[in-house]
Write a structure and sequence with these properties.
Elements: E1 4-9, H1 17-31, E2 36-40, H2 48-57, E3 59-61, H3 69-82, E4 85-91, H4 93-104, E5 110-115, H5 128-141, E6 143-146, H6 149-158, E7 167-168, H7 176-182, E8 194-198, H8 207-220, E9 226-230, H9 236-245, E10 252-256, H10 262-266, E11 270-273, H11 282-289, E12 294-297, E13 313-316, H12 321-329, H13 348-358
Parallel strand pairs: 1-2, 1-4, 2-3, 4-5, 5-6, 6-7, 8-9, 8-11, 9-10, 11-12, 12-13
Length: about 350
């Protein structure tokens, strides 16, 4: 029996890691005869570009600005009937809660709730105690997927019903298409060696901390490579101002959104991740797959499950910009070969098979 899937998102950020992972999943589902649809709850303003780009390549629907749960629920119920949707895979809390409400009146529908970061994060508007209660409810009528083992343990510890538990399924990242894209000509030409950071320009990603650390690293060694930051987002203006105020205009390049960042990652001396929190950072996996070593803060979940200091990069004390600066200054000492072996669990085929199993499609 045909089992179409609906990916449910609150926003669809152009530079978002969750968004990229779900597009990867949808592409792989198609190879297994599963058709995917996307419903984005909010797609206006700064989020419009991401949705427009999504719609160019996938079946995607949104609704007018100002809509709320009543309209979203009605739209999705109609979509479920029209497209014979059997499974919803939701991401971010408002989308997860909407999926939960829809499931209450659609008993045959399968729901997979995904969690991509820890409960205790600064930007999370919902208090951690409420989130724990919500996930106990989600466990009653669907499956929960955590993208890291540490996050899986945190969720399982919070569930009130011991008979249910979260699944660990890593992000689908490593594919042949990624390797092919990495061989294309980069859209930006950097003549000299460079370090790279990739992600949405938002508080979560800590690019303000990275600029601070990079300035300190230049004081340690004035010959370290240029810092290339790839991505767009709400903090772009503040980050530009910080670069100018720090006198780093000749050292830091803000490239904006790049449709294919893989050639730029492949050409870098190393990749730096300065996030305040993550679930499982996709860009670290992509970097190692392309044999580029990584330097990263030891976030509460994610990086420590990928990085082995001295073997494929350097794990730095959480939010310690002095330690990050020191690691950046020693970039040339990082290993440069045989790094792809560390990310085999993130290959498309095994991840997709797990999602098909958990969702009941296969």
């Amino acid at each position: 029996m045909k089992s179409n899937v609906l990916f449910l998102h609150k926003y669809f950020h152009q530079s978002g890691g969750i968004e990229r992972v779900h597009k990867n999943l949808a592409t792989s589902f198609a190879q297994h005869g599963v058709e995917s649809y996307f419903y984005v709850m909010k797609s206006s303003g700064e989020d419009e570009c991401g949705f427009v780009n999504l719609k160019m390549h996938f079946n995607a629907t949104s609704c007018p600005e100002g809509s709320g749960f009543v309209r979203w629920k009605r739209d999705i119920k109609r979509l479920i009937i029209q497209q014979d949707i059997k499974v919803i895979i939701s991401a971010t809390e408002q989308a997860n809660f909407l999926a939960f409400l829809i499931k209450l009146t659609s008993p045959k529908l399968k729901v997979v709730y995904t969690r991509h970061c820890a409960f205790e994060v600064e930007e999370q508007r919902v208090p951690a105690r409420i989130l724990r209660a919500l996930y106990s409810l989600y466990a009653l009528n669907g499956e929960i997927v955590a993208v890291s083992k540490c996050l899986q343990s945190q969720i399982n510890a919070s569930l009130l019903f011991a008979s249910r538990s979260a699944h660990y399924i890593p992000n689908a990242v490593v594919s042949e298409s990624m390797y092919s894209l990495s061989k294309e000509q980069p859209s930006i030409v950097i003549e000299k060696p460079y370090l790279i950071a990739v992600g949405r320009l938002a508080t979560q990603k800590g690019f303000d901390l990275l600029v601070d650390a990079y300035a300190k690293a230049l004081e340690i060694d004035s010959t370290i490579p240029t810092l290339l930051i790839v991505g767009d987002g709400e903090d772009k203006g503040a980050l530009q101002a910080q670069v100018i105020q720090s006198g780093l205009e000749n050292n830091v390049v803000l490239a904006g959104f790049v449709n294919n960042p893989y050639p730029l990652i492949k050409g870098a001396t190393s990749l730096v991740l300065s996030s305040r929190y993550e679930g499982m950072p996709t860009v670290l996996i992509e970097s190692l797959a392309l044999d580029v070593p990584v330097i990263a803060f030891d976030c509460p979940t994610g990086p420590s499950e990928i990085i082995v200091s001295g073997e494929n990069g350097e794990l730095v004390e959480y939010l310690n910009t002095d330690e990050l600066a020191l690691a950046i200054s020693k970039y040339s000492q990082l290993p440069q070969t045989s790094l792809a072996k560390y990310v085999k669990p993130f290959e498309f085929d095994s991840v997709v098979k797990e999602y098909l199993r958990v969702s009941g499609i296969r």
